[in-house]
Amino acid sequence: MEFDVVELSRLQFAMTALYHFLFVPLTLGLSILVAIMETVYVMTNRPIWRQMTKFWGTLFGINFVLGVATGITMEFQFGMNWSYYSHYVGDIFGAPLAIEGLMAFFLEATFVGLFFFGWDKLSKVAHMIVAWLVAIGSNFSALWILIANGWMQNPVGAEFNPDTMRMEMTSFFEVMFNEVAQAKFVHTVSAGYVTASVFVLGVSAWYMLKGRHIELARRSIAVASSFGLAAALSVVVLGDESGYSASHTQKMKLAAIEAMWETHEAPAPFTIVGFPDQEARETHYAIHVPYVMGLIGTRSLTTEIPGIEDLVAESEDKIRSGLIAYDALMTIRAERDATPAEVRATFEDHSEDLGYALLLKRYVDDPRDATEEQIAMAADDTVPHVWPLFWAFRIMVGLGFCFIAVMASFFVMAQIKGMRFPRPALWLAVVMIPAPWIAAELGWIVAEYGRQPWTVDGILPTALSASHLSVGDLLITLAGFVIFYSVLFIIEMGLMVKYIRKGPQEDVEATEVWMQKHERRMRSSGEVSPAE
Fold this sequence. Notes:
about 525 residues, mainly alpha, two-stranded antiparallel ribbon, 19 helices, 6 strands, about 70% helix, disordered C terminus
């Protein structure tokens, strides 16, 4: 088998990222759910809510530690495996990562310690504030990382400096409020909330089936189904916002997700199922729903969504424009301060297409020597592999609607039908526990795989971003990461299963049942209850 340095570097980063994202969604969602539970405890003073906070908080802590351990490595990979990328765009990409580390991570890590060791040292209100600060820190971490990633998808607020040969930030405000970053943030954290809700629902359902910790399970189901239903609905709404954003920031990705080879007359139909054939440039046995894709992608009935063929032709035009910029850049580099003003003006006129000329470096050392055939090949490279994107998106969306149905069902059972849960529904909740992780991983495949062949969309091709490493180095480190991360994953699963089987450390259910009966007797006699 022939190995390629760039592809191995991509595989290594993909493996570490996918492992890391096994822990992130649950951390995001559990942090909020735990804070909600402790808030109810402070408001009601019922011991059962303290028990719930401690139990689910323990599972949050296990997951948080593993998330940190797997996440640190990823940031080092930018310098180790993607050194030219770090050199080229580090001025922009490094800023949100630094803020994430200095502000969000230290906030989160500091208050995690207070959360676990401050139960007997802080007042109830102070400890509740700590729980919310942990949740805020977790979400802030996601915000800054997704601002960095969103810039890679839609590079705004920056421009290329021909004298330093680097991208430089022109507006931190534009980078921070990048529409892609904001859409990705709210969509990702909502997916995390769904993940945690499904997890809490499934574990609680297992307790109900086993007849253990019934009071904790009933209340946990009520909280998880309410929170999860709102989160699942928001995921769909915010996913629609991401699709609308892609229609004018990443047109090729949107066309590939839909396997839209030709530009349709507006409004474009949505393909429910089909079998994309990239060589033949057609989708076999496709079933279409009229108008839906046009409404999702453009929110209008008159705006066209360009197909892959038209976008390839547009990319070829951009490559030719980029070649003009590249030629002017070489003159600037050669003559430095003596560069004629008209050469710099020419570069400025075509600089936004420079990245497209760099796609030719895969075929020729100097893009200006490229043949017509090589230009056509480079333009065709802007099309990502369609069938993985097509199916990953549809499975993710299908799972999203399943989450809405399940959460809505449990919400009705918990809030309207008096906490009566049929055993088949409880078993369904248990079986569905892995589903949100599958959806989340597929979502990242759509986001990252759909950006290829770019590391920074339209700016820096992936083929130019990697470090000068040997194939042997990459194979050894890839194997090491896979083995080490697999061991960490097994440890995490073992700890989670152990503590779930063990259940809450405090047995307060008998006390809670007694308090409820006692309060009913006191209310019937007109006395004031202990909680009041």
